[in-house]
Amino acid sequence: MSFEALGLSSEVLKAVLEEGYETPTPIQQKAIPLVLTGKDVMASAQTGTGKTAGFTLPLLQKLSQTPRRTNGARKGSPPVRALILTPTRELAAQIAESVATYGKYLKFRSAVVFGGVSINPQISQLRKGVDILIATPGRLLDHASQGTVDLSQLEVLVLDEADRMLDMGFIHDVKRVLALLPETSERQNLLFSATFSREIKQLAQRMLNDPQLVEVAPQNATADRIEQQVYRVDKGRKRELLSRLIHDEQWEQVLVFTRTKHGANRLAEQLERDGLSAAAIHGNKSQGARTRALAGFKDGKIRVLVATDIAARGLDIDQLPNVVNFELPNVPEDYVHRIGRTARAGMSGKAVSLVCIDEDKLLRDIERLISRELPRVQIEGFEPDPSIKAEPIRQGRQGGGRSQGSGASRGPQGRSGNARSGAGKVQPAGTQAANRSRRTRSRASSGRSA
Ligand code: AMP
Fold first, then answer.
1. What are phi and psi of 157, to 5 degrees?
2. Identical fold at 3-215 and 226-444?
3. DSSP assignment string, 53-104
4. 160: Cβ contacts below 8 Å, ≥ 6 apart
5. Atom of ligand 1 nearest to the CA of 19
6. What is the β-pairing status of strands 322-325 and 393-394?
7. Chain centroid to CA 189
8. Where are the domains of the chain?
9. Is the CB of 342 under 6 A from ligand 1?
């Protein structure tokens, strides 16, 4: 199938072809015609499937072909026509880039608002009038409470990564945003989520009107193209092994995951001392530092980007060849999200996990989730010391889900749902993972395996 066959206008097609896309991805083939009909859509798709273009292309076309509503608008700046709500700043910034790219031959204004940066430039931009607004929930509510954004005439709402939004404790913020919009039946609503849990279905009932369901191949379609390996190594020698692998295998661009922000900082510093250009990216870094690190990584100045799960969520780096799990995630599903940073949009990639004895249980949980045993590799000189016994895994302060998204404080309810709190707690390896994997298994059986 070609993009032309999807009913897209010449302006949109031109921009897509300039991006070098030849064939629509499965989610684009299904979602684009549906969105163009004006129906509400509930789609299961994860990052890396091309879902951003799946909703952005038809959204741009629809807005360009329908006149702006004028009824009941307040005096002052024109109200927002379409809102794309996302959980993280990085994702918001990336969607904003996509909107600008795909819409470059159309006349409209877009803006992105998220926390962690000054609100004033955002206010000036909103004052000038914005057709498409991309936002994280907290900062959007800040604007709403200051009266700097008008959502009363909204025509299209997109809720992206809805499952992550809920995992990060944003459900109350999302409900508060919904309360600022016109009636469900008076707007088109699109919900994208990697999973359809009970909570997501409840949210869908609240915000969608007789939705069309779209499901694409489960995510192991992506995972199949990723070469995955497990290196057994003692905890204290992981850094040494990582430096060695980067040198020996000549990895030029590698995204490394750690469990904690502190661990990310420390590892980036150690790698720098090993002569590798490295930077850390996590929720305690200023937005400027995060943007600089990501830009340096994308253009090759930084060879190793060390990230925590939440910071890396939604990162879209074209052709990222290598992902390393310096530590396995506590939640098996995060393994799939992590390795999904590579092998995107049909490319292949390599994902390596450095696993010490403390992480055996986590590894088993991951292998159960993805229904396959990962090949083990043993590098000579790095054989685990058999006298070392497994120890409980220390849970560093992962938190920050809330602050990643908006930066602004928003009352207690937003924080309570953060699944990753647990500062300084010591938990037996895999306890938390086991709790979560029960949920994960039920997700897997609802159409989303590895
Ligand atoms: P997403 O799932 O929206 O984060 O997209 C993942 C990556 O796929 C992005 O780098 C897009 O630029 C790329 N992409 C999206 N649609 C296509 C397509 N039809 N063909 C090739 N690449 C695409």
1. -115, 130
2. yes
3. HHHHHHHHHHHHHSPPP-TTPPSSSPPPSEEEE-SSHHHHHHHHHHHHHHTT
4. 51, 52, 55, 84, 85, 86, 87, 91, 95, 192
5. 12
6. unpaired
7. 20
8. 3-215, 226-444
9. no
CA 364: distance to chain centroid? 25
Q: Write the DSSP symbol of residue 88.
A: S
Residue 191 to residue 206: CA distance in whole angstroms: 11
310 CB near ligand 1 (under 6 Å): no
Q: What is the pLDDT along the chain (450 residues), one digit of tens a residue?
A: 889 999 999 999 999 999 988 889 889 999 999 999 999 999 988 777 889 999 999 999 999 988 777 665 556 678 999 999 999 888 899 999 999 999 999 999 999 999 989 999 999 999 999 999 999 999 999 999 999 999 999 999 999 999 889 888 899 999 999 999 999 999 999 999 987 888 888 899 989 999 999 987 554 444 567 889 999 999 999 999 999 999 999 999 999 999 988 999 999 999 999 999 999 988 777 878 888 888 898 889 999 999 988 766 656 666 678 999 999 998 887 888 788 777 655 556 889 999 999 999 999 999 888 878 899 999 999 999 989 888 887 665 443 333 333 333 333 333 333 333 232 233 333 333 333 333 333 333 322 222
Which residue's C-alpha comes closest to atom 15 of ligand 1?
A: 50
427 phi and psi, to 5 degrees? -125, 145
Q: How far is the CA of 83 from the centre of ligand 1 (A)?
A: 21
DSSP state of 117: S
Taking the C-alpha atoms of residue 325 and residue 335, their distance in angstroms, rounded to an integer, is 8
How far, in Å, CA of 75 to CA of 164, rounded?
36
Instruction: Report the topology of domain 3-215.
Output: Rossmann fold (3.40.50)
Q: Is the CB of 98 under 6 A from ligand 1?
A: no
Ligand 1 centroid vs 108 CA: distance in angstroms? 22
Residue nearest ligand 1's atom 11 by CA: 50
Residue pair 261/399 in contact (Cβ under 8 Å)? The answer is: no
Whether the CB of 26 sits within 6 Å of ligand 1: no
Would you say the pTM of this structure is higher than 0.85? no
Question: How crowded is residue 34: how many other Cβ atoms within 10 Å of its Cβ?
Answer: 19
- Contact between 354 and 386 under an 8 Å Cβ cutoff? The reply is no
Distance 344 CA to ligand 1 centre (A): 7
| Backbone torsions φ then ψ of 71, nearest 5 degrees | -65, 130
Residue 265, φ and ψ in degrees, nearest 5: -60, -50
The CATH topology of domain 226-444 is Rossmann fold (3.40.50)
